[in-house]
Amino acid sequence: MSNRIPISVTVNGKVHEAEVEPRLLLAHFLREDLGLTGTHIGCDTTQCGACTVFVDGQSAKSCTIFAVQADGSDVMTIEGLAPEGALHPMQEGFWEEHGLQCGYCTPGMIMSGVNLLNENPNPTEQEIREGISGNLCRCTGYQHIVNAIQNAAGQTVTGHVGAAAKKG
Amino acid sequence: MLPKLVGARIKRREDPRLIQGRGTYVDDVKLSGMLHLAFKRSDIAHGKILSIDTSAAAAMPGVTAVYTGAQVKEFLGPMPIGTPFPAPAHYSMAVDTVRYGGEPVAVVVAADRYVARDAADAIVVEFETLPAVMDPEAALAGKPAVLHPGFTNMMGQSDTNLALMIPAGTGVDMATMTVDNTAIDDAFAKAEVVISQRMLNHRLAPTAMEARGVVAHYEPGKDEITIWSSTQNPHMVRSNMAALLGMGENKVRVIAPEVGGGFGAKINIYGEDYVAAAISKQLGLPLKWIEDRSEAFVATTHGRDILAYIDIAATKEGKVLGLRAKLIADIGAYEMLLTALVPTLTNGMLSCVYDIPAIRAELYEVFTNKTPTDAYRGAGRPEGIYFVERAMDMLARELDIDPAELRRRNFIQPDQFPFLTQAGNQYDSGNYEPTLDLALKLSDWEGLKRFRNEARAGGRLIGLGLAFYVEICGIGGWEHATVTVERDGRVSATTGTSPHGQGHETTFAQLISGQLGVPMENITIEHGDTAVVRHGTGTFGSRSQVSGGTVMMIAGDKVKDRMAKFAAHMLGAPFEDVGATEEDLLFEDGMISVKGSPGLSKSFQEVAGFAYLGAGNAAAAGMTYPAGMQAGLSEEAFWEPGGATFPFGCHISMVEVDRDTGEMKLLKMFAVDDCGTIVNPLIVDGQIHGGLAQGIGQAMIEEVVYDEDGQLLTGSLMDYAIPRATDFPHFDLDNTVTTSPLTPLGTKGIGEAGTLGSTPCIVNAAVDALSPFGVKHIEMMLRPEKLWKIINGGQA
């Protein structure tokens, strides 16, 4: 029953070798086996995107990939987005624009934001909303996330409204 | 005068760890020797348990133990609830009867979560199916079955599904339990127009992005237990756990780590939490249980689900004379912690912002074979505002009065506050016209009407909706804080609130920074761990800034007073020579100085160091100490407001319905909210956006659906939709400021308010969009199929 398969996965630049059950999800491999708990699990039907990582340069939902499928691949998690002590512009954008509240969807949302700007460095507001439509957030209502991505893209933030806008 | 930094747009101190994926949520907690729990749940809505065969599960490699509900009952009593009304006993796991699909019947303890799940799936349960009670009105008549045959309700009735009946409003005397309907009957008798409408505020699933979870670690040697829980209120978990486990509160430590959203559904202490703690105690081992998303849809409390029959009576000019409401709350199978409380809050909102001379409500809470309901963002208040604002909108349409104008004609006037409504709440302060005017200006209401009329003439189905709301905040009792200035001049503060996205580490630091003149980076705000934060209530009900912020400043003031005494003593003769008193000391920019004599100052750090010497050490160093003062700068406070606070606002939306598909698109959303004084506008905007999203979500996107046998059809995120970024336009916000007289800063609370105005606003817009078809009301959720039917000649 427990046939373990040997895999070799590069995660955040480091090669990891392990023997895993075929059914082990990549998300669980990252979180439990490698202790990289920044990647979160928010659903069981691939809807929410909290588990978004990069696999071979493209964003992917790690809850819908088996660890064995990532054998030989190059995975980047939120922990590997920026060097130790530094922040990626997307992370800076989320901080500056209050793009997070509880923080649970945030690692996946940030990874999707990075993927979006990789493919489309100067998106419209609508393109940003479409680009993150695979990531659910229950706290923010998305407006400040859109602002955060505009900030990261070096654009003028169009969504400054409300009481915060009056403070400049 | 407000402390410096109140009102400042400061980015959050919580963010650095969260944006790097370095926050610790409950599933990130790993203890040596920790085992995992998985629950076997009922797959029918109502039935007797005939047998449970756990033998295959128990025999699996990696399985430590399997327990049935009957076995757990041997060491775990029924769960406590937080309301005083009689309620049927509710065990953590079903003992002989299951009453909702998803109710736990057995639990596995195993080496890892995969093995635990394999074993749970191998448990075989035989049921004798009983009829499923799914319709609340049929349930009221005891059909097709009675869920709790042995239960007698507060009114002395047995053999009933009626949990509770509460009358409220004009002529109701709760003290003598008498009712005099003369005034309300009069109001309806002399009305020139009466509108009656059935309305459902439908059932929702709170769906925080982090589902629930618990880690329980009982240490036999110490007879102490530590519990990590994704909770909104660790201290409530502590007291309830201690009671149910038969342990002293001083032996129970609860830690709320990072919590990935709560929205009211994580106030309750659940069966799974008690079971994990109790089994940890039985086995002397740490245990973890993490909820799957599909589990969450059946196992975490649902929100809303109140059916209303509303009657509104008015003059031809639109002056409301009376409002009647028969409310039927479908509370599901059992009462959880606050289940019975939530619908009672609906009663209290039935005046909204209007001076209505007669209001009469009857609330029926009824059991059905569904997941129990409990608090969900707004918790009873969105329901009440929805019913009133739909009725007002129908009245406006019937009398052909502009919806904004109708509200204006009925507002409670500024000079009437504090205002006791016929629904029973006393509003602290309000000034509704300027807020309405600002919303009309922000949205260009007249311009929107012209646009809609032209578009409608061209065949487009465009609709405009407006809703006004008032909200009750700051309830939930006292809150606690400590403020400690350390000997090096840093500040450590604790709060009994338990933030899960609300940013208290930032906003409370803003308060202390302004109060003590200390930079924010020198202040830590601790929360969530009952070993560090000895007392607290929690974060829910939009109470944290009102109660938590206020008590933080009260504790801060006590520390400030002590520092002033030490500083005055240190300044010595020159201080006395200028005739200064402690009140003349300014705490600014890390210095404590005499107002008007800036040269007369000591650094905050120096004073702190001196305050920790004590008289003996001071004397040894050749210094005197203030007479009668002991060392130390650590103060605590408990505080609750003298009454609830009442923020309010106006929401306006524009929608378009597609003729061919019935799909509705939200084109514009405007919100003008008034929560009194704002401490951090960035955070307030974030709370409003989140509330708008959930309120719009209720109207347009979300709906819990059961089939007639009690199977939950919306059992995963594939079937229960929650809003995505593409569902919303850009929100346009503005605000007015009407302070509360009940809080020193004038704050009122804002966390839930976004849900109150938005839901009726959207439905009002949809009705407006389809008004060419003669429709007067559309029940939520506004499915395309429903709207298409209206367009194509049927009533939905």
Q: Gist?
A:
Helices cover 31% and strands 15% of the residues of chain A. Chain A is α+β, with helices and mostly antiparallel strands and 168 residues long. In chain A, helix 2 (89-96) crosses helix 5 (143-152).
Would you report the number of β strands of chain A?
5
Briefly note the CATH topology name of the largest domain in chain B: Aldehyde Oxidoreductase, domain 4
Radius of gyration of chain B: 28 Å
CATH class of the largest domain in chain A: Alpha Beta
Q: Work out the oligomeric state of the chains in this entry.
A: heterodimer
SSE topology:
The complex is a heterodimer of chains A (168) and B (796).
Chain A: E1 5-11, E2 14-20, H1 26-33, E3 52-55, E4 58-61, E5 74-76, H2 89-96, H3 106-119, H4 125-131, H5 143-152, H6 162-166
Parallel strand pairs in A: 1-5
Antiparallel strand pairs in A: 1-2, 3-4, 3-5
Helix pairs in contact in A: 2-5
Chain B: H1 15-19, E1 35-41, E2 47-53, H2 55-59, E3 63-68, H3 69-73, E4 97-98, E5 104-110, H4 113-121, E6 124-129, H5 136-140, E7 162-169, E8 172-173, E9 178-179, H6 182-189, E10 193-204, E11 213-219, E12 224-229, H7 234-245, E13 252-255, H8 271-283, E14 287-290, H9 293-299, E15 303-314, E16 320-332, H10 342-348, E17 359-367, H11 381-399, H12 403-410, E18 419-420, E19 426-427, H13 432-443, H14 445-457, E20 461-470, E21 479-485, E22 491-495, H15 504-516, E23 523-526, H16 544-571, H17 573-577, E24 585-588, E25 591-594, E26 597-603, H18 604-611, H19 614-620, E27 634-639, E28 648-657, E29 664-674, H20 681-700, E30 731-735, H21 754-769, H22 784-791
Parallel strand pairs in B: 1-14, 12-13, 16-17, 22-23, 29-30
Antiparallel strand pairs in B: 1-5, 2-4, 2-6, 3-5, 7-17, 8-9, 10-15, 11-12, 11-14, 15-16, 18-19, 20-28, 21-22, 21-27, 24-25, 25-26, 28-29
